[in-house]
Amino acid sequence: MNLETGIVWISDKEERATASSQRLVPICSFLYEAIQSFLSYLKSFAQRYGRLDTNIGIEVNKIFDYQKPLLNFIDKKGKFHALRPAIIIQELGDNFRFKPDWTRHVGQRFLHEQGVDEAVILVVFGHEMMGQEAWRKSSTLSIGHIIDAKKYYQQLAVELELEQAKL
Fold it and tell me: Which of 13, 49, 134, 166 has the fewest CB atoms inside 10 Å of its own CB, making it the most exposed?
């Protein structure tokens, strides 16, 4: 994750979660602020509750060392698990009435409506063909093409009137 540049390398497609399934995603200023706030919260969380359970501090440090994903679920036994759609569905059950990937589809449609190049959209959503990933030397797209898409995500945040969660 490079917050200053505005890009993150993620793997959020559960069905293809392998070591080579990551994709590069732009980080708009709205998301930048949310991530900064969440990172501050994580530090505070580890300080407060790490005294009760040393495992909490260890697991939070793994997040800061990029050994664990940013978003985790802590089960009833205090174990950290990478947040996945299956966990959200299991924990929220009937209270979660959306398809787990609905935000991806909203974002993809918005980018299409803004006239973003199809190749960039495919890369951002991890739909490009095998071997054509933007991070490969043989790709015709540069990281700059992906970073340029963050202005559209900022526009989407404004249009949806999103607000930051207070942690």
Answer: 166
Residue 16 to residue 22: CA distance in whole angstroms: 9
Tell me the C-alpha to C-alpha distance, in Å, between residue 9 and each of 28, 67, 126, 150. 14, 13, 11, 14
Beta carbons of 155 and 114 less than 8 angstroms apart: yes
Structure tokens at 25: 């995603």
How far does CA 41 lie from the centroid of its chain? 17
* Predicted confidence band of residue 146 (pLDDT cuts 50, 70, 90): confident
**Environment class of residue 60 by beta-carbon count within 10 Å: exposed (0-12), middle (13-18) or buried (19+)?**
buried
**Using one digit for the tens of pLDDT, what is the confidence trace for 21-56?**
567 889 999 999 999 999 999 999 999 998 888 899
Distance in angstroms (rounded) separating the CA atoms of residues 63 and 69: 6
Q: Which residues pair with 82 in a beta bridge?
A: 72
Q: What are phi and psi of 74, to 5 degrees?
A: -105, 115
- Residue 134, token pair as written in the block: 């933007």
Assigned token pair, 27? 């980080």
